[in-house]
Write a structure and sequence with these properties.
single chain, disordered C terminus, six-stranded mixed beta sheet, 11 helices, Arc Repressor Mutant, subunit A
Length: 380
């Protein structure tokens, strides 16, 4: 695996409140004080309306322009950082957020932060360094947790540490390569060239492998993503709703076509009753017993009169291996698509050896028939 500093797109992501110094302090620690250095190709700042104005005036203005000063002082290559890469969080109405105070504000902040991290980590040529040193504690938490949900091996998380007495000064932005006298609270003077800035690396557990592909590439709220991760990591449980033609598995509810739902239900019933695995119907010889057990499930699925009659006619002499294999393959595709890496416990297993014997490898306690609450378990 490549080192983080070898990726063509290197992104520094930070949250800030009213202390934009976090950006220059972290950039200094990464690009100057670290060995090997991690020099970002772009910097993205997540903040509130007031924080964005502070960053614009303190970092990106002609004077004092501390971001440009740092780049010049240490001869850093061009780094994309402008008002376009300062992301102001938005409230429920889509308005820029002045502060994060209410539960609704926290929810919107979580969604905004999660969306950006999901977007950045979707690029395989990128490596992220995420700093949680600035902003409100909830912002830092959401940023760190978003990286835990979506982060990859090349991504890193840190907090910046500034030596005393510089950490208490609003005028300190980074250790300068020359003498610069700074007045501290109480009239004390200090030389910024003597300051020390280091990164405290924060290990994180990546949950990315447990998220369905739809959550990695699409749009989902913070709560939806957390729910999916919990479902993937928690004990396997399957709820089957024949009336709504839906299942709930790995923290997610989704629909199944009647033909595939009936096949899944055949194996779920057997697992509930602790019955042994079944061989598939013979490829060329219709199996009446298989047809009956399958149609018994299909008949319980509501609203299928036309489709069911057609299927019953097709299976009047029994079910053959072709019918079984085609619907089993489609069932597997749907479950894999919906659940991603969390799909395995819910797939019909062939036993792995010949002769093949098929079963659903869930305990009888993990299987239940009932109503899937569509207001709580919509497809993500």
């Amino acid at each position: 695996m490549k080192n983080s500093n070898e990726y063509p797109r290197r992104i520094l992501v930070a949250v800030t409140g009213l202390s934009p110094q976090i950006v220059t302090e972290t950039l200094y620690a990464l690009a100057v004080a670290s060995s090997p250095p991690f020099v970002p190709t772009e910097i993205h700042l997540i903040t509130t309306l007031g924080g964005a104005e502070k960053a614009r005036l303190g970092l990106l203005s002609d004077e004092p322009g501390w971001f440009f000063r740092l780049c010049q002082d240490y001869a850093l290559p061009a780094i994309r950082f402008s008002t376009e890469t300062i992301h102001v969080l938005k409230d429920d109405a889509g308005n820029p957020m002045g502060d994060i105070r209410s539960p609704a504000d926290n929810r919107c902040a979580a969604d905004g932060i999660t969306g950006l991290i999901r977007e950045f980590t979707a690029d395989p040529d990128s490596a992220l360094h995420v700093s949680i040193a600035g902003g409100r504690k909830t912002m830092g938490f959401f940023l760190g947790y978003a990286l835990s949900l979506y982060g990859r091996p090349q991504d890193n998380l840190s907090h910046v540490l500034v030596s005393s007495p510089y950490e208490s000064s609003i005028g300190f932005y980074y250790p300068t390569p020359y003498s610069r006298v700074l007045e501290l609270p109480g009239g004390r003077l200090a030389d910024t060239s003597q300051a020390t800035v280091t990164l405290a690396e924060i290990p994180f557990v990546s949950l990315r492998h447990g998220l369905p592909e739809a959550l990695l590439t699409g749009r989902a709220t913070y709560n939806d993503t957390v729910k999916a991760a919990r479902g993937a990591l928690g004990p396997a449980e399957l709820l089957i709703d024949l009336e709504k033609r839906q299942v709930h598995a790995a923290g997610k509810g989704f629909s199944l076509p009647p033909a595939e739902l009936a096949l899944l239900s055949v194996f779920a019933r057997r697992a509930q009753r602790k019955e042994p695995p079944l061989p598939a119907p013979h490829k060329e010889i219709p199996d009446l017993e298989w047809a009956e057990r399958y149609l018994a499930e299909l008949r319980q699925i509501s609203g299928l009169m036309g489709d069911r009659d057609e299927t019953e006619r097709a299976l009047r002499k029994g079910m053959d291996g072709g019918f079984f294999s085609s619907h089993l393959s489609k069932l597997r595709r749907i479950i894999n698509r919906e659940l991603g890496p969390a799909a395995n416990p819910y797939l019909i297993n062939d036993g792995g050896t010949r002769p093949r014997r098929y079963s659903l490898n869930l305990s009888h306690e993990a299987l239940r028939y009932g109503s899937v609450d569509t207001t709580q378990h919509r497809g993500l």
